Each structure stands twice: as C-alpha cells, then as structure tokens.
Amino acid sequence: MSGTYAVSMGDRGRVVIPVELREKMNLHTGSPLLFVETPDGVILATRSQVRELVRRRLKGPSLVEELLAERRAQASIEGGE
What is the pTM of this model? Predict the structure, then answer.
C-alpha cells in the first residue's frame, strides 16, 4: 500500500480511478467495487479486500473455543469428585 491518488468527483457523482491504480489492482470495466464508510474516512475496495478487512477486524479469541474449554474443565472437575 503505497499510493496516494488525487481525483475529483465529476458530474453525477462520478469518480475516475487513475490508470496506474486500475492496472496495479487489475481492475477492468465492470469490476465490482465497494465503498466502505469508516470513522476514519471512506475506503474503496474490491469484495475480496473487504472480506479480508472484515476477517482481520473479527480476528481474536474464539468465544466458542473459550466456552468449550471452560465446559471441559468443569466436566473434568465434576468427573474427578
């Protein structure tokens, strides 16, 4: 990630993606893109980039795994009595 591209919004809200960025991201006519509104600004990304962004944000301790570990520990304690 190392590019800053200045663009202007045209009539009817159109924004032209600079050719250098289109080539770098392998974007073509009809490529599906998403605008993602964040507290820090708007992100323009492909669907796969948004999917990866969501995965990174959701990454962390698994609540299901924690609950299962607690239940196993409790069953072990109860089984030992």
Answer: 0.60
